[in-house]
Amino acid sequence: MKPTEEINALLVKYWKGETSLEEEDSLTKYFTGRDVADELKPYTALFQYRENLRCATLSDDFDRKLKKAIRQKKRENDYITIRIFVPALRIAASVAVALALSFGVYMMIGKNDKTYFAETYSDPNAAMEHAAFALDKLSEALQKGEEASIESIQELNKVDLDWEMLDSITESDINYQKSTDSLPLENNL
After folding, report:
1. 42 is a domain residue
2. DSSP secondary structure string for all residues of 168-183
3. Count of structural domains, the chain
4. Domain boundary at 12, 31, 55, which?
5. Alpha-carbon Rg for the chain in angstroms
6. DSSP assigned state of 73
7. Residue 147 counted as domain residue
8. CA-CA distance, 173 to 183, in Å (whole number)?
């Protein structure tokens, strides 16, 4: 049998997955050698790749890099866990403060039977007059605030701003701008 016919037979077995390791080694030797038949040259890249994989080794600091990456991932996971519980901790702190304040008010009221909220006006018309005056002042203040807000919004609408660009500005962009602003004028030119 010619070497080319033998190699073709081994290739058929290889593609079917029926070759032994020794037969695969002989295929690799043939295709990484110099006298590969022209009709078999398309397969040389595959077997050269196999040979290159066999010779591949890990770098000396591979273990150190791998351990560093694992530690970094663990830190990220820890941070994610903390971020998940932050809203729950805020709620718990709010509930604790509310309970403490409620308990304090309960204790203050329980010690004194004196009423804290008493009617201060003997004339209901005077009370109504003072309440109406206070509500009128509050209404005026709220109206002025609303007018100022509407004017501000109208002024912002007149300005031609690229809101998407403003939203995309990151903290690093701001820090870069601050650092270039602090440079002497000659360096900014």
Report:
1. yes
2. H--HHHHHHHHHHHTS
3. 3
4. 55
5. 41
6. H
7. yes
8. 16
Pair 109, 143 in one domain: no
Name the one residue in this structure whose structure tokens are 């295929």. Answer: 27
99 domain-assigned? yes
Backbone φ, ψ for residue 113 (5° rounding)? -90, 10
Asked if residue 137 and residue 112 are part of one domain, the reply reads: no
- The pair of three-digit structure tokens given for residue 18, joined into one six-digit string: 């029926």
Torsions phi, psi for 118 (to 5 deg): -130, 160
In this structure, are 150 and 112 located in the same domain? no
Range of the domain at 112: 61-118
pLDDT tens-digit profile, the chain (189 residues):
457 788 888 888 988 989 898 888 888 888 888 888 888 888 888 878 777 777 667 777 888 888 888 888 777 666 666 667 777 778 888 999 999 998 888 877 766 655 555 667 788 888 888 889 989 998 998 898 888 888 888 887 777 766 677 677 766 666 665 566 555 555 444
10-17 long-range CB contacts below 8 Å, 24 or more apart? 11/40, 11/43
